[in-house]
Amino acid sequence: MSNEETLFSKIVKGEIPADILFQDDRVTAFRDINPQAPTHILIIPNKIIPTVNDIGETDEALIGYMFIVARNLAKEEGIAEDGYRLLINCGSHGHQEVYHLHMHLVGGRPLGRMLKG
Ligand code: AMP
C-alpha cells in the first residue's frame, strides 16, 4: 500500500469537496465530477490501492465489499432493475486517470455496447 496522497484519498479525508453518497471505515462513494450518464458514481477503498495490479491477497474482502456498496447504491439511485455498468480502468491502456483504485457505477440510460472507441 502506498502512503502517497491521491486526489481521491483527499476526498476520503474531506480535504477536497465531493458529493459523497456513502462512507464508512472501508469504502467511500461519491458522484463523478464529469458524469457520463444520469448516474455516475465512483466507489473507492479508503486506503490507497493504486491499480487493480496492486490488489493484495488480504484485500479480498474489501474488493468484494465494494461490489456490495455498488449494489446498494444502484438500488438507492433507482437503477437496479433496468441495469447498469460497473467498470474499473487499469493503467495506461485501460485509460486510468486517477491512480487510486475506483469502481465506476454508471447507469440511468441504455449504455450500449462496450469498447466502441
Ligand atoms: P479513470 O479514468 O477510471 O481513472 O476515472 C477517473 C474519474 O475520476 C473520471 O471519470 C473523472 O471524471 C473523475 N474525477 C476526477 N476528479 C474528480 C473529483 N475531484 N471528484 C469526482 N470525480 C473526479
Q: Main attributes?
A:
117 residues; alpha+beta; HIT family, subunit A; five-stranded antiparallel β-sheet; 2 helices; 21% strand; binds adenosine monophosphate
Structural notes for this entry:
With 117 residues, this protein is an alpha+beta fold. It has a single domain (7-107), classed as HIT-like (HIT family, subunit A, 2-Layer Sandwich). The chain is built from 2 helices and 5 strands; from the N terminus they run αβββαββ. A 5-stranded antiparallel beta sheet has the order 1-2-3-5-4, covered by helices on one side. The model has no long low-confidence stretch (mean pLDDT 95). It binds adenosine monophosphate. Adenosine monophosphate binds at residues 7, 18, 30, 32-34, 42, 89, 95-98.
Structural class: alpha+beta
Which segments are poorly predicted (pLDDT under 50) over 5 or more consecutive residues?
Answer: none
**Cα-to-Cα separation, first versus last residue:** 32 Å
From the spread of the alpha carbons, the general shape counts as globular
Q: Which cofactors or ions or other ligands sit in this model?
A: adenosine monophosphate
CATH superfamily membership: HIT-like
Helix content: 10-25%
Number of E strands: 5
Mean pLDDT: 95
Biggest sheet overview:
5 strands, antiparallel
Strand proportion: 15-25%
Rg over CA atoms, rounded to whole Å, is: 14 Å
Please give the structural blueprint:
Elements: H1 7-12, E1 20-23, E2 27-31, E3 39-45, H2 60-77, E4 84-87, E5 103-107
Antiparallel strand pairs: 1-2, 2-3, 3-5, 4-5
